[in-house]
Amino acid sequence: MDMQIDTLTSRASTTHFVSTGTVNWVILQSDAGVTLIDGGYPGHAGAVLESLRRVGSAGEEIRAALLTHAHVDHLGGLVKLRQKYTFDVYAHADEVAHARREYLEQADAASLAPIAWQPRVLRWLSQIIPLGALSKSGVDDAAPFSGLRALPGNPVAIPTPGHTRGHSAYLVAEGEAVVSGDALISGHPITSHNGPQCLGPIFTHDPDQGAESLEAIAVTDATLLLPGHGHLWEGSMRTAVNEALSRR
Ligand SMILES: [Zn+2]
Description:
- This protein is an alpha/beta fold.
- The strands form two sheets. A seven-stranded mixed sheet has the order 1-2-3-4-5-6-7, covered by helices on one side. Strands 8-9-10-11-12 form a five-stranded mixed sheet, covered by helices on one side.
- The longest helix is centred in the C-terminal third of the chain and has 12 residues, at about 205-220.
- The protein starts with a strand and ends with a helix.
- It contains seven helices and twelve strands.
- Helices cover about 25% and strands about 20% of the residues.
- The radius of gyration is 16 Å and the shape is globular.
- The protein has a single domain (about 5-245), classed as Ribonuclease Z/Hydroxyacylglutathione hydrolase-like (Metallo-beta-lactamase, Chain A), CATH 3.60.15.
- The site of zinc ion (ZN) has 7 residues, from α2.
């Protein structure tokens, strides 16, 4: 599995940003164990464990997983990991029903049809379908987050609805970095552009709301963006948000 791990060390915890060619996840590590933020596609469960091993942890140390949102590329690996390990899965209150698969708010074959002829999109589909992109499994007991500060890494939620109705970003590494999920990405297999950007409307529940939500990221003092797709990006969050909005 091709993965890159960028590590940030702060006083009480360590943040590991794990990026793969298709999707990213984050490991928050402290003496109390590990908080995962997102967990890749179903086919990434082994890669998540491999990433934990590479940073000196193990599946047994997972205390909780946070979802930025409940799309299959962020939740699928966690569904698999929970067949073997015991940990709670939390999301924003407005995302919990989605995580439980009481409804599905995700691009499907019909919504992808207008772009499915593009070579990049075809290549992307040929990568993600074997990773379990068509899985409809959810986390039946996903719960709304509260008291995140008590979890390893002390994450702070930044609600950013739009990509999905209960999307949330997280401030980590003692305020140094934002885990932005799909509210703000820095690259994606279906586009050639590298740099802060929003995902296209086909993949977004409410693009205008998503654009408005970015202000909550822009006002942080973080200088590192750890997106759901693309590479780690360094700079002020205001700059990242302005760049993304200017490309809409
Ligand atoms: Zn995604």
